[in-house]
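Write out the bound-state structure for iron/sulfur cluster.
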Amino acid sequence: MKIPHGFYVRIKKILKPFRAFIFKPPFTNDAFNKQIAEEHKVTPPFYPDSLEKYITRISFEISNMCNYTHIHKKCPVSRYTDKKKLETSIVYKVLDELALYNFCGEIDFHRYNEPMIDTRLFEFIEYTNKVLPNAKISILTNGSLLNQEVIEKFEKYKLWHIIVSSYTFKEHERLIKLKTTIPYKVYYSRLDDREDIYNRKEINSKLPCYATIRDITVNCYGDISICCLDWQNRFVFGNVSSLSLKEILNSKQFLEVHHELFHGKRTLGICKRCDWQR
Ligand code: SF4
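---
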């Protein structure tokens, strides 16, 4: 039986005060906590003159593959039949463009993919360190390929943090024992019901959403989609292989959505069904 999304949201609200007792607290080091506190102080502007300068996070979906698809049937990656890698030249093109603005926000190499299965990951990190020395590289991984040797390899680069979503008690116990100087967090992850986002009832939330600045994703085809929830890539605004990031983010269509979302006006089909605020 399929549980309606509204029921899930209500249960989540009821259980919220008891979460710390129900779930084992995640392993988090002090450096990570400080970082998160700093991040929450940032308030993006409403009408920026040129949107690309105000991005706080950009994610590269370097592939649409994950080594856990066989056990995570609820994850969007398990639905992708067309296996695809984002072209290396596109990653470099966007990083070079961000260097023009001296980008110092967050850079990710994941959406629903597992970044560590991609042999180009260290190459991308190295290039980002070179052209964007002030950018904050974040690694989100399922931890399956992470061990003491690999985490020490990461220490050779400038990384903002490593976050691991572990899925079993055994993996969690193994991963929290890894030692690193990089801010590092391991938490238990539960897959939510986002795969049905397109079919939910409209909620028509009036809450503002900052995804147009805080959740810019270059998907594995090179398209800029509305946000990470759009796993079927239905709401895309342009492709960075033929256009610059600046051109896409300052296009009439993108700016319209940006201004609407900032004012809590959710006009896109996916946004009408969403209760998130990015
Ligand atoms: S309202 Fe939801 S679907 Fe729309 S951009 Fe924000 S997070 Fe994404």
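---
The first strand starts at residue 27 and ends at 28.
Confidence is low (pLDDT under 50) at residues 20-29.
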